[in-house]
Amino acid sequence: MDAAVLFSGGKDSALAALSLDRFYDVTLVTGTFGITDDWRHARRAADRLDYPFRTVDLDPAVADDAVDRMRADGYPRNGIQRVHEHALERVAGLDVTAVADGTRRDDRVPTVDRSTARSLEDRRGVDYLAPLAGVGRGAVDRLVDAHLTVRAGPSEALPRADYEAELRAHLADRAGPDAVASVFPAHEQTVVRGRHPATDGDTPK
Amino acid sequence: MDAAVLFSGGKDSALAALSLDRFYDVTLVTGTFGITDDWRHARRAADRLDYPFRTVDLDPAVADDAVDRMRADGYPRNGIQRVHEHALERVAGLDVTAVADGTRRDDRVPTVDRSTARSLEDRRGVDYLAPLAGVGRGAVDRLVDAHLTVRAGPSEALPRADYEAELRAHLADRAGPDAVASVFPAHEQTVVRGRHPATDGDTPK
């Protein structure tokens, strides 16, 4: 069975992929609006994790809507949620048994509630999997420490490929760089640099 | 890292164990009130899955409360939820990094919501893991078909070791056999008979 895991290059989606590869042939998939080429950072992380990688095109109108929403709200949460749901729809269009993401129990955004998940499954004929939906922050951190090497830093400096980089660029284009600092609070992100040697080659434990 | 997986002998808790054994040394744990020896069915399933097994004692007063609740409600849901939370507390008293169960996204009972999970983690100093919390019914069925051999049948006939068998016996003792049929709706259960050969020996895919 094939699973497409929505992948940002960060630790959560990488850990989701590790959780699933016992059961599925995993491909890491990054959505891109074509605004920047930040998806290349995800490809590099996927290579280091030794998973197949591909991109899916996202609809630029969704980026416009998301940025409008963020400017109106003054914070990014609802815009990011909108983009995440759009990306899941696009990934569900691939020929796979399951689509997955790295959403965690303790996340505030993005979240995929039960009715959204069931709607995606019923309409698209795929399984939606959130292997970290029942895993808290502490356990995620302990598993990442044990199985991945990561680099942490402030969002604006770290070469990641989640929607945030493209949405930041789009917001700066439309409203100037000050809008970015006003909408996006400062926070730390991670980028995956590889697996720990003990977990190379898919050998459990 | 050690994880204690609350285990009934059924497919959900078995699949939860498979999901976790890439990351943790898994022990399957069954709670018993001492009302029946149905825990032996779980030990047999654990042997067939080739995981270590142990029991934890549950408080008989909780069985009394649960049965009273079920009789008052006329259905088992709230009583089973109470027993599940008590069992998680007891398992969290073991010397492990994590406690886990087989609760699924589409389950109505038992469920462990975010605040209950965080409370358990904060008070007990363990991680609580629900590896199937982000997995729907269809995906669970497909994964079980691929990785486990199971036997299905009506609850009252299948030799399982979840709380239901002990609670049915306790209810029959206190209120007669007719009370059992009135509180517990007829439903199918599964009992795990082993792994598929392809997944023996912990070899992924």
TrEMBL record, chains A, B:
InterPro entries linked to this entry: DUF7411, Rossmann-like_a/b/a_fold
Entry-linked Gene3D superfamilies: HUPs (3.40.50.620)
GO molecular function: hydrolase activity
Pfam family, one: DUF7411
Keywords, ordered alphabetically: Hydrolase
Name of the protein described by the UniProt record: Alpha hydrolase
Native organism: Haloplanus rallus
